[in-house]
Structure formats: C-alpha cells, structure tokens
C-alpha cells in the first residue's frame, strides 16, 4: 500500500477508507548486484501495491451517491487496476524472481505514506458532493500519473519481452485513464480571465 511520493499515499487512503491499510515493513535486504534487478524488484512491488489500492477505489462510491459520469470513470479505473494486479500476481507465480512485497522503502517513507493515507482517507470518507469529487479526482490523477510512469520504468528494465510489452500496454491504459480524469476536472473547472 505504499506509494512513493503522493500518488501511492493517495492510494493508501483508499484502503484506509474502504477497510484497512496494509503496510509492508521495510526490511534489510542483501545488496543487489545491478541497478537493473533493483528496478525490477522494487518496481514490481510498488506497482503491485499501487494497483492493489486502485482496484478498490470504486468501493468508496458504495456509500456515496455521485454523478454517473464519475461512477463510470472510477469503475473503469478499478477494473483496469484489478486486471493489472491479477496479471502481476500471476507473473510472480510463474517467475519467482519477481517479489511483489519488498518495496525497499526506508522507514521514514513508509511512515509518511501511512500518515498521508490516514488524513486523505478521513477526508474522502467525511466529504460529499463537489468536495468529495474534487478530492477523489485529484488523488486519481496523481495515482494514475505515478502508475503510468512506474510501469514505463519497470518495462524499460524488464528483460522478458512479453512482460515488457505487457507493462508498456499497462502504462498506456493508465495514461488514458489519467487523461479522462483530467478532462473531467477541466470540464468542471471555472476560471475567469484576469483583467
């Protein structure tokens, strides 16, 4: 449930809001021989956690009565993330070199993410109407932007051509969803030109 910078923190908030946050503890690992394997190892774990959070984001709408347009977009995000989460889990089952649980984050980063998740989770649960929608769209924008770039980074380091292609496609799918989130934000943004 940990996500570097704000995006994963925002994703953690969904888990908190929906029923609990699963934080993986940082653990000492043997030194990694090459940067390539470090990227694969931690990148897959970070992406898996991100998708795990995102697959549950639609659960927030169970208790909220929001616009159909928002509901459809959040459902598409959840479904894309659930597929990606399941696919990464299957990849890890067939290739034991992929560890989906060791993110390699220092304790301060894990604690910061947990703190952000608590605050954002509380905000999403207590807010309604346009405040809820705005907060949800902002968190989704950051999460999807982070996920897209993370999938690209992992794809670049992946030596297995099939997995690399899959990761590039996942990055593309997350990018398309991010653009839809931005379009919804912009469609409802009022701005007056300065005089």
For this entry, give a set of tags.
195 residues; mainly alpha; Ferritin; 0% strand; globular
State the CATH superfamily name.
Ferritin, core subunit, four-helix bundle
How far the N terminus sits from the C terminus, by CA atoms, comes to 46 Å
Mean pLDDT: 80
Q: Give the overall shape.
A: globular
Q: Can you tell me the CATH topology?
A: Ferritin
Oligomer: single chain
Query: Low-confidence parts, pLDDT < 50 over ≥5 residues?
Result: 1-39
**Helix content range of the residues, please?**
over 70%
Q: Number of DSSP helices? A: 6
SSE series: HHHHHH
Number of strands: 0
Cα gyration radius (Å): 17 Å
Structural class: mainly alpha
Main sheet, how many strands, which sense, barrel?
A: none
The tally of domains stands at 1
Notes on the protein architecture:
This protein is an all-alpha fold and 195 residues long. It has a single domain, classed as Ferritin, core subunit, four-helix bundle (Ferritin, Up-down Bundle), CATH 1.20.1260. Helix content is 70%, strand content 0%. The chain has helices spanning 5-18, 35-54, 68-94, 107-126, 129-157, 161-187. The chain is globular, with a radius of gyration of 17 Å. Residues 1-39 have low confidence and may be disordered.
């Amino acid at each position: 449930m940990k996500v570097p910078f704000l995006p994963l923190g925002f994703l953690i908030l969904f888990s908190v809001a929906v029923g609990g946050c699963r934080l993986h503890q940082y653990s000492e690992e043997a030194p990694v021989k090459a940067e390539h394997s470090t990227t694969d190892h931690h990148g897959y774990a970070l992406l898996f956690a991100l998708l795990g959070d995102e697959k549950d984001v639609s659960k927030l709408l169970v208790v909220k009565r929001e616009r159909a347009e928002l509901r459809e977009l959040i459902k598409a995000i959840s479904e894309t993330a659930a597929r990606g989460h399941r696919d990464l889990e299957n990849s890890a089952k067939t290739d034991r070199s992929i560890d989906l649980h060791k993110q390699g984050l220092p304790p301060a980063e894990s604690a910061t993410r947990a703190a952000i998740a608590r605050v954002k989770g509380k905000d999403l649960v207590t807010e309604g109407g346009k405040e809820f929608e705005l907060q949800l769209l902002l968190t989704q924008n950051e999460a999807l932007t982070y996920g897209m770039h993370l999938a690209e980074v992992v794809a670049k380091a992946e030596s297995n051509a099939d997995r690399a292609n899959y990761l590039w496609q996942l990055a593309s799918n997350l990018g398309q969803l991010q653009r839809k989130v931005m379009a919804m934000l912009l469609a409802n943004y009022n701005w007056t030109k300065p005089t």
